[in-house]
C-alpha cells in the first residue's frame, strides 16, 4: 500500500505541472477567442454599414438636402448632397443636440464627447463633430464626402441626439469653440436608420 501511495504521489508530482500547463493555455485561448469574437461582431456591425440620415432645412423650413452617416470599422463616412446654399465656402459640423429650431441654436455646440478644443489645427483638437468646409458653386449645390475617424454612430444616439449644421461662414479650423463659422443657415436632425 505504501508503495502504491508513493508511486501515485510521484506521478502526481511529475504530471501535475504538465496538467496545469495544459489548462492555462486553454483558458488563455478561450479569452483570446472571446476577444476575437467581440472584434468580429464589431467589424460585422460596421461592415453591415449601420447608417443614420439627416434631412437638412434652411431657416425658413425649406429642404436643402440630405447627409448620410455610415459606420465603418475605422469611423464614420459622411456623404451629403445639398442645394439652395449660398455660393462660397461654408463650415459644416455635427452638433450635440438633435433639435433644429431656427436659428438653430437649439442644436447646441459641436459634438465633443472627449472634451477637446475645436479644429484640426488646434494642438488639443479636434471635436468629433468637426468636418471639412464645403465649397458651394454658383448654382448653390454641393456634393461631398468626409470621414470622421474618431466618430461612432453611438455618439449621435445619446438621449438628446445630434444634428448636422451648415454655417454661413468658413471654419478657420482653430478658433474655439466653433471655428468662427458664423450663423447657422441649415440644420437637420440625425435619425438612425433601422
UniProtKB/TrEMBL annotation:
Main function: Destroys radicals which are normally produced within the cells and which are toxic to biological systems.
UniProt-listed PANTHER family: SUPEROXIDE DISMUTASE CU-ZN -RELATED
EC annotation from Swiss-Prot or TrEMBL: 1.15.1.1
Signal peptide: 1-20
InterPro entries, per database record: SOD-like_Cu/Zn_dom_sf, SOD_Cu/Zn_/chaperone, SOD_Cu/Zn_BS, SOD_Cu_Zn_dom
Catalytic activity, as annotated: 2 superoxide + 2 H(+) = H2O2 + O2
Family to which the UniProt record says this protein belongs: Belongs to the Cu-Zn superoxide dismutase family.
Keywords, ordered alphabetically: Copper, Metal-binding, Oxidoreductase, Signal, Zinc
Listed name of the protein: Superoxide dismutase [Cu-Zn]
Domain of life of the native organism: Bacteria
Domain named Superoxide dismutase copper/zinc binding: residues: 65-190
Cofactor note: Binds 1 copper ion per subunit.
Cofactor list: Cu cation; Zn(2+)
UniProt keyword annotation of Nucleus present: no
